[in-house]
Amino acid sequence: MTSQATKERLYLFDTTLRDGAQTNGIDFSLEDKIAICELLERVGVDYVEGGYPGANPTDSAFFEKKRTKKAAFTAFGMTKRAGRSVSNDPGLRLLLDAKSDAICYVAKSWDYHVKVALGTTNEENLEGIRQSVEAAVEAGKEALVDCEHFFDGYKANPDYALACAKVAYEAGARWVVLCDTNGGTLPHEVEEIVTTVIEHIPGDRLGIHAHNDTEQAVANSLAAVRAGVRQVQGTLNGLGERCGNANLTSLIPTLKLKPEYADRFEIGITDAALADLTNVSHVFDEMLNRAPDRHAPYVGASAFATKAGIHASALLKDPKTYEHVEPATVGNKRRVLVSDQAGKSNLLAELERLGIAVDKGDRRLDELLRVVKERESTGYAYEAADASFELLARRVLGEVPKFFDIKSFRVMVERRFNAIGELITVSEAVVKVEIEDRMLMSVAEGNGPVNALDIALRKDLGPYQPLIEDLELVDYKVRILNGGTGAVTRVLIESRDNGTGERWFTVGVSSNIVDASFQALVDSVVYLLIQKTRGEVRPIAATA
Predict the structure, then answer these.
(1) CB count in 10 Å sphere of residue 345
(2) Whose CA is closest to 131, among 97, 81, 95, 165?
(3) Looking at the domain covering 8-269, what would its CATH class be?
(4) DSSP state, 245?
(5) Predicted structure pTM score
(6) With CB atoms 3.0 to 4.6 Å apart as the test, which of 298, 391, 450, 452 could cross-link to 446 if both were Cys?
(7) From-to residues of CATH 3.20.20.70 in the chain
(8) What does DSSP assign to residue 434?
(9) Which residues in 423-460 are b (16+ Cβ under 10 Å) and which e?
């Protein structure tokens, strides 16, 4: 076994916010990108590629400030246009001016595309790569070059594909990334071609960027690592255009846990971050308003599930029979004849993560476990709603102050013509709350029923009003859990304290979308009040 001191370093480059944004049906807002960036920091990747400054207002706004604390914040864009100087290329200037640590250029490395897509000569393309890399280095930024369609280009004209990679390296690029852009290359081809490239460029300056069109992206990435590359690109949950990219939620545990890689390489993912991977994967899916893939390797709900019968019997005697890694190492859990004790262990781990100290022998854990299972069976999902789970746990444990009681709420939606003949929709909400035996009623109009409820709820909370002045609802997602007229609706709300920058998620479930929304809104307010009053303000009354 290789000692820790002599292990080679592998670097993880995440392109969820750029390549992943090209997924059908995905459209990241600025708030989405900020939240996902924080999630990626939680994972511990080395690079976060945030998007393409200048391509759209969202990406431009995202690069107005540095968004990472640990990872290298990376801007993506094209190399210098043919026929223009570095100083006279607006797109290149936006990359150089972006508040990023690094620039990842996309460069044509297939001579066919140089002619057809760029309409220039092979020589001019090489010169554009060289000048772009030099400009990034001169600007004090780390330079990366994504050699687009490298493997197809290599098969068509190996000398030119290599020339593109070599000029990037010789110009000072920290990483020359070999891209399987259409996902059609097979693992044995990747390994053979990378082995040849390493004769010209050191492996510790090479990366792999694999697409998943033949379900080989993870395998191709591992093949490239075996051949010598030392940077791996991918996305959370394999997001990406067409069939997606190499899935980091599969690559990370493979590199971290499988001896062939773990004994030779070190990655910047801690054991604690690895144990958080399942939660991160599910939180990300909830942010996208997608159901998590139950059969996803490592992190799926069925990844360590075994049906009853001889498999279950063997599993109970020796978990290694059907589990290639310990589920807890990736934050997942075994699902076969789950005992109360196993359930408590998972619950205790989550409570510890939230900073809630409970003795494992506390009988209230049985009640909390029962309530969680009961609520999940009705549609609640707490993976992406930590704030709601924390409130639920504290309520069962008797630790939630009673700030106010909701007595009733009402929402009216009116569609009518206004004074100048325009057809408009007006929403009005009325919320009644009781605080210290005082009944307070607030009325508000909004641009929709949820907005009106949000404004009315936070319009007058008596002595607590100053504590919620910085509260803002920043995102709202709805999922229909079943069909028919009696459909159950789950609402996920993201809130932010503009004073501290803290964000949190709350969830509500009901057959009535307004009721589900109001549940999540109330949880959001109560969660903030708990944070604000902890050790500072004495709550009005404690729950029984």
Answers:
(1) 14
(2) 81
(3) alpha beta
(4) B
(5) 0.74
(6) 452
(7) 8-269
(8) E
(9) eeeebbbbbebebeeeeeebebebeebbbbbbbbbbbe
Joined together, the tokens standing for residue 543 give 């729950």
Provide the token pair at 500.
């501290």
- Tokens representing 403 are 């700030």
CATH class of 360-400+471-544: alpha beta
AA letter at 181: T
Q: Which residue has the tokens 């791996």?
A: 232
pLDDT in 10s for each residue of the chain, 544 residues:
555 568 999 999 999 999 999 999 999 999 999 999 999 999 999 999 999 999 999 999 999 999 999 999 999 999 999 999 999 999 999 999 999 999 999 999 999 999 999 999 999 999 999 999 999 999 999 999 999 999 999 999 999 999 999 999 999 999 999 999 999 999 999 999 999 999 999 999 999 999 999 999 999 999 999 999 999 999 999 999 999 999 999 999 999 999 999 999 999 999 999 999 999 999 999 889 887 898 999 999 888 876 544 444 444 555 666 789 999 999 998 764 333 334 676 677 678 877 888 888 898 988 998 898 888 888 888 877 889 999 999 999 888 888 999 999 999 999 999 899 999 999 999 999 999 889 999 999 998 999 999 999 999 999 999 999 999 998 899 998 876 666 899 999 999 899 888 889 999 999 999 999 999 999 999 999 999 987 444 443 333 2
Q: Count Cβ atoms within 10 A of the Cβ of residue 253 and give its class: 0-12 exposed, 13-18 middle, 19 or more buried.
A: buried
Please report, for the chain, how many H helices and E strands are present, in that order: 19, 18
Q: What span, in angstroms and rounded, lies between the C-alpha atoms of 182 and 464?
A: 56
Cα distance between the two ends of the chain: 57
Residue 337's SS3 state is: coil
d(CA 349, CA 343): 10
Collapsing DSSP to helix, strand or coil, 397 comes out as coil
- Whether the CB-CB separation of 176 and 205 falls below 8 Å is answered with yes
Fold designation for 405-460: Double Stranded RNA Binding Domain (3.30.160)
Please, which residues have CB within 8 angstroms of residue 254's CB and are 6 or more apart in sequence?
218, 222, 261
Sequence ranges of the chain with CATH classification 3.30.160.340: 360-400+471-544
What is the rounded distance in angstroms from the CA atom of residue 491 to the CA atom of residue 180? 38
CB 61 within 8 A of CB 34: no
Sign of CA dihedral 249, 253, 258, 262: positive
Q: Rounded to whole angstroms, how far apart are CA atoms 257 and 303?
A: 16
Rg (CA), the chain: 26
